[in-house]
Here is the input.
Amino acid sequence: MTNPILADAFGHHTWATLVLLDACAGLTEEQLATTVPGTYGSLIGTLRHTVGADAGYLELLAPGEVPVIDEEDALGIAELRATMAACGEAWDRMAARDLDGTEELTRHRDDGSTSTAPLSIRVVQALHHGTDHRSQVCTALTSLGIEPPEIDVWAYAWKDDRLTETPPTS
Here is the structure.
């Protein structure tokens, strides 16, 4: 049975990243190379890192669910979008599993180091990581004079008519 909290959390996570990728699809190479102090790196580098990290988190959390990204720096917007869409489907499948948040997961890095943390921490990290870097992409767009799209949770809820507001009475 799908956990609706996780389904919405990762539904928003995926949707917001896809909306940003769509907003960046028409940018020039020069615009995609934009860097802003205090952010991860170039706009395209931040998008690549964000999507690549999602695939990396899923490699540990749901092995085999999405292809491993070998050449993250070579991916364009279209490839990033396709990868993020696949990640979204994998997050949906994960939200449908019976998860044990206390399960310890160990990540083995190429350099021989490891990190061990409960599933709950790894899930929260994936969500936080995406939010942090999407914000940086919005900052980069703003620095270019481009109004970033609305990607907050309220916008996610409004798109499916799951948020209603009643104006105050006079």
In short: The helical segments are 4-24, 29-32, 43-61, 77-95, 119-143, 153-159.
